[in-house]
Each structure stands twice: as structure tokens, then as C-alpha cells.
Amino acid sequence: MLISTKNIITDREQQDYQNKILSLVINKQWKTLKKTAISFNSNDQPLSYFKDNIWDFSAYRVGTELTKINFTYLECEFTKNLEFELKSIVLAYIYHSRHSLRINSIIGKLNTLKRLARALENNNVYTFNGLNVDALK
Predict the structure, then answer these.
(1) What is the DSSP secondary structure assignment for residue 70, as one 8-state letter?
(2) Exposed/middle/buried for 50, CB within 10 Å: 0-12, 13-18, 19+?
(3) Alpha-carbon distance 18 to 63, whole Å?
(4) CA atoms within 13 A on the CB side of 44
(5) Start-to-end Cα distance in the chain
(6) How much of the chain is helix, strand and coil, in % rounded to 5?
(7) pTM, two decimal places
């Protein structure tokens, strides 16, 4: 459960929050989504917001697991569209995956996507939408 680390929340509250985030992503309501909290500390105060380039999940640490998801690549930021798409994909991994994924697994998947996103930008493509082999040549 990623929404609360301190207080037990109901499955319904968890589902409502997930649905809110999903609706914002699907409807591309980026202004509202940018202000949406993604992770919380042990006092249920936001640690990270969608707009942040680094999402902090330290309150959810398991063992020696990494706890920060960094959306920059080689110290460079992506175009806003690709950044939002990468963050939306990560949100799907966190909140909508059928399997419980550890932060380390999500970071590994994101790193692959960041390399792909950089290749797209190098070819003047600024979205994953309609991605095909020709876009990467």
C-alpha cells in the first residue's frame, strides 16, 4: 500500500485514490496531476508530487532497497510530454500493476524507458505514442 504509511486506510480509500490518479492521466489533466502527491512520509505528509523530478519512497523502504525514482537521464531533463508519459508509466507500475513491484524493479524498468526516450528525442520524436522501429533509426 503506497498511499499511507502510518494510518491504515481502507481498500476503498486506496482504490479511490488510484482511480483519481488514473482519471487525471487518461484525461491528460497535467496541471492538476502536477500538484498530486505521489508518496507520503510516516506522518502522511507528501514526500513527492507528480511534478517532481525525483520521487521519494523512503517511507516504504524494504531492507536495502533503493527509494528514489529519478526521472532525469544523464543529468538532462526530457521534454515535458515525454516526462509526463514516463511518469504516467511509472504510476501504472506503482498503482495498477497486477503484481506487487518493488521500487528497485520499477527503477530498472524506468531506466530502460529513459534510454528509449532519449533515443526518441534524438530523432525529434517526443512521444511514445505510435512508437515503431522507424522512429528509432
Answers:
(1) E
(2) buried
(3) 26
(4) 7
(5) 41
(6) 45, 10, 40
(7) 0.80
pLDDT of 133 reads: 65
User: Which residues have C-beta within 8 Å of that of residue 86, sequence separation ≥ 6?
Assistant: 71, 78, 110, 113, 114, 117
The grid cell for 15 is: 482504490
| pLDDT tens digits along 5-20 | 445 556 777 778 888 8
Q: Alpha-carbon torsion 106, 26, 15, 32, what sign?
A: positive
Q: How far lies 35's CA from each of 20, 30, 64, in Å? A: 13, 9, 30
Crossing angle between the packed helical segments 103-122 and 80-96, to the nearest 10 degrees: 160
